[in-house]
Amino acid sequence: MAITSGEVDTVDNGLAALGKLIEGDKALSAALKSPLHKSEEKAAVLAELSDKLGLPQLAKNFIGVVALNRRAGDIPGMAKSFAEKAAKHRGASRITARVATAITKDQTLILESAISKALGRTVTVDVEVDPALLGGLQIKMGSRLVDASIRTKLNNLTNLMKGA
After folding, report:
1. Cα distance between residue 18 and residue 20, in whole Å
2. How far apart, in whole angstroms, are the C-alpha atoms of residue 3 and residue 23?
3. What pLDDT, in 10s, does the model give residues 54-101?
4. CA 141 remoteness from chain centre
5. What's the rounded Cα separation, in Å, for the pair 141 and 149?
6. pTM of the prediction?
7. What is the 3-state secondary structure (H, E, C) of 33-60?
């Protein structure tokens, strides 16, 4: 539907914003997953959030149907799945970069450019922060993982010392 109406990018951006908002608010996330709240109440809250975020009508309709079908807690995952399909539609690939500390928008663009050049195709990078990495980064492309984190290097060094 988003493809035929030409709204792939706006729906993708809207769902991504809503997904990040839900993931960033633990109380909201828990309430949307809770069976204690009626699906109509969840749909009303999500409709209000969708209006405040300025989501396109197609995305609002989708979110309403999802909430009424008792799947409101799954919206962040659905947003990520839609983002992957939207990237394929645009001829790009989505990858996930896990970093120890948050990086700036410019650093994300530099990372996207470097990975795109290395792979020979356009990629879009989703950044996740994981302080347990200590430093460095992990890049996940589909089922492949490139691990250049300090945590892994320290673990490898520890294992090497145990074997000596």
Report:
1. 5
2. 26
3. 999 999 999 999 999 999 999 999 998 888 888 778 777 888 999 999
4. 13
5. 16
6. 0.62
7. HCCCCCHHHHHHHHHHHHHHHCCCHHHH
